[in-house]
Amino acid sequence: MHHDGPGITAMSTQIIDLYRRCYAAPPWSETPEQLGRYPAKLAAGVAKPNFAALTESDGAGRLTGVCYGWPTPDDLSGNAVYDALVTAFGLPAASTLTRGAFEVAELFVHPDHQGQGIGARLLGRMTAALPAAWLITNPGAPAAGLYRKLGWREAGSLPAGFYPQSRASVFTLTRPDA
């Protein structure tokens, strides 16, 4: 189901619960403090211009997957993620990676429903009409294998410590025909 910011805000409790379930486990193993910061992170994301989200639920109406993001702004200053991109790739390359691209901020699927194609469906629908998209993930995580299978390419690693418990890499998708 497609959602705008108010639609996601209305179901934020379910999304936060699912996020905690997904990101408390390896490879992310977020601490209670990190998990506690997610509600504010979600609220900030929802407020971004042209925020878009997709969700999927099971037959009983329980949330099984979430994918959301927004177009990357031209100005990459003043944001920890963009600062890490600039540190890792330099400003010209970071700008080239993100210019005109959709930033997939989050994609997560309930652990009991992983491997059923939910992540692929959500990501495919989210990026189908876009010329370019990017995201950050652990390059060794099962999700990274999915991204590679779907045609995403690993552009490179972010600085050590960007994500304290895990390595993080930027993956990109470019469609010349989109």
Please summarize what this structure is:
The chain is α+β, with helices and mostly antiparallel strands.
Describe, in plain words, how this protein is organized in 3D:
With 178 residues, this protein is an alpha+beta fold. It has a seven-stranded mixed sheet, sandwiched between helices. The chain contains seven helices and seven strands, in the order E-H-H-H-E-E-H-H-E-H-E-H-E-E.
Q: What are its keywords?
A:
single chain; 178 residues; alpha+beta; seven-stranded mixed sheet
N-to-C order of helices and strands: EHHHEEHHEHEHEE
Largest beta-sheet details: 7 strands, mixed
Tell me the helix content: 25-40%
Low-confidence stretches: none
Q: What is the multimeric organization of the chains shown?
A: single chain
- How confident overall, as mean pLDDT? 93
3D shape: globular
C-alpha termini separation:
22 Å
Taking strands numbered 1, 2, ... along the chain, how are they ordered across the largest sheet? 1-2-3-4-5-7-6
List the helices and strands and how they pair.
Blueprint: E1 2-3, H1 5-10, H2 12-23, H3 32-46, E2 52-57, E3 63-71, H4 80-89, H5 91-98, E4 102-109, H6 118-127, E5 132-137, H7 142-149, E6 153-157, E7 169-174
Parallel strand pairs: 4-5
Antiparallel strand pairs: 1-2, 2-3, 3-4, 5-7, 6-7
Helix pairs in contact: 2-3, 4-5
